[in-house]
Amino acid sequence: MLEVVAALIWRDGKFLICQRPANKKRALLWEFVGGKKEHGESLQEALKRECKEELDISVEVQDVFCDVTHGYPDVTVHLTLFNAATDDQPRMLEHNDMRWITPSEIDDFEFCPADEDILKKIKQL
């Protein structure tokens, strides 16, 4: 099972989502910023590294919003989504696009299947 971390970053009532690159699996689907935990890293360290690599932001990792396990045809992931905060302005270094959206806009975007249960929880906030 692959350990994956992601950040739920809020700003002015909206949260940040990113669109996967066209050349990666689950191409052009929307997701939270984050990625794979590397050997020897804590989940929090992995999230800080991924946010820096993908969006050039430093984040303050807070509590766990939720975690899910999802089986894709090619891999099973255990995704831990942390509440996180940043004052930095994100820059797209890897993604195709990024947006700040409200919970009411979730249905306007096609997300990675592993995020579906998380998105249901966000809609209930």
Quick recap of the structure?
By secondary structure, the chain is α+β, with helices and mostly antiparallel strands.
Task: Explain this structure.
There is one protein chain. The protein is of the alpha+beta class. The chain has a single domain (2-123), classed as Nucleoside Triphosphate Pyrophosphohydrolase (Alpha-Beta Complex). It is 17% helix and 38% strand. It is built from two helices and seven strands. Strands 1, 2, 3, 4, 5, 6 and 7 form a seven-stranded mixed sheet that branches. A hairpin with a 2-residue loop joins strand 1 (2-11) and strand 2 (14-19). The protein is globular and about 35 Å long.
Describe the SSE topology.
Layout: E1 2-11, E2 14-19, E3 30-31, E4 34-36, H1 43-55, E5 60-71, E6 76-85, E7 97-101, H2 116-123
Number of continuous helical runs: 2
Question: What is the global morphology?
Answer: globular
Which CATH-level-2 architecture?
Alpha-Beta Complex
User: How many β-strand runs?
Assistant: 7
Low-pLDDT runs = none
CATH superfamily: Nucleoside Triphosphate Pyrophosphohydrolase
Order of helices and strands: EEEEHEEEH
Determine the structural class based on helices, strands and strand pairing.
alpha+beta
What's the CATH first level?
Answer: Alpha Beta
**CA distance, first residue to last residue:** 30 Å
Look at the structure and give the mean pLDDT: 97
Strand content: 35-45%
How much is the radius of gyration in Å?
Answer: 13 Å
How many separate domains make up the residues?
Answer: 1
**CATH-assigned fold name:** Nucleoside Triphosphate Pyrophosphohydrolase
Percent helix:
10-25%
Largest sheet: 7 strands, mixed
